[in-house]
Amino acid sequence: MATQAAVEAWRLVRALSHDPAVLRRGHDLAEAEGTTPTIAKALAHLSPERPVPMRELAGALRCDTSYVTSVVDGMEEQGLARRAPHPTDRRIKVVELTDRGAEVAARVRAALDQPPPGFAALGADDARALLALLRKVVGTPEPNVQHPGA
Amino acid sequence: MATQAAVEAWRLVRALSHDPAVLRRGHDLAEAEGTTPTIAKALAHLSPERPVPMRELAGALRCDTSYVTSVVDGMEEQGLARRAPHPTDRRIKVVELTDRGAEVAARVRAALDQPPPGFAALGADDARALLALLRKVVGTPEPNVQHPGA
DNA sequence: TATTGTTATACTCTATAACTATA
DNA sequence: TATAGTTATAGAGTATAACAATA
Q1: Which letter, b or e, does each residue of B45-75 get, where b requires 16 or more Cβ atoms within 10 Å of its Cβ?
Q2: pLDDT beyond 80 at A147
Q3: What pLDDT digit, counting tens, does each position of B97-143 carry?
Q4: Which of B 81-100 have CB under 7 A of nucleic chain D?
Q5: Strand C closer than 7 Å to the CB of A70?
Q6: 105-124 on B, CB < 7 Å from strand C
């Protein structure tokens, strides 16, 4: 028995991230930045420091490489990223963020990280407790801190 | 400050429900049942008892009514549901599950409710604690039970 | 006149297959 | 011969607008 509590908890986890307001957020955010949801998602996967091969981006977005071609085309048209040759393998093209792309990417990530309002109902203790439990579920070991009392 | 813990917790909530294995589940499940992801989602929104007006289904799926027309067309072709007239308002058509549709819908719901493996790492106490915290976030009042000790 | 559902149509998202350049 | 990316194309998924029936 997966325990009734686990089933219910899983239901609430889905309810939180499938909340219409949350789903709309990605769309609205992209529009506010003058781009598309797919490009916004791609930006969130690109690091400002490390240029990323097209194929790797396809993996991160879980889509075909042919689609990445058109997504990156869009990013170049909007001045958010550019293609550059790979230093050693000339078959590979890497995608690197422009300055503007890095700014937009940072805003996108910050906005997506913003917890929905319900989290404000949690006190600091509850928030830490929730985090600890979710870490158990996800399998992330707790980082090595002296959990500060309360 | 939304508290670092809340931000982290929210990140993990998203990680759980956007897990590739979970995302693939809906798709694979639909295929196994010989139907499409969209129809599977529609089935999950239909109750076996209460027939549902097309327009209401559009709301539940958050799509246009014109699209509901084609989704319900598909469900009828597959013998999963049928249209029936509304008892009092002849403009309205309600969608009702066939026997087979009700069976498939039940299997779809059961499969989607299955928590991902990480939840098995939780003991019964942890599962209940997680559930209680998520209820605070979602705003659902705790149901009126004498929480049975540990 | 307002509302429900349908039709016709078009646009976005994404994949498959064939191709080019490089390894 | 195998791999990275591109092109051309086709298919899902979904919306918009005009329409018919009913309220």
Answers
A1: ebeeeebbbbebbbeebeeeeeebeebbebb
A2: no
A3: 999 999 999 999 999 999 999 999 999 999 999 999 999 999 876 66
A4: 89-91
A5: yes
A6: none
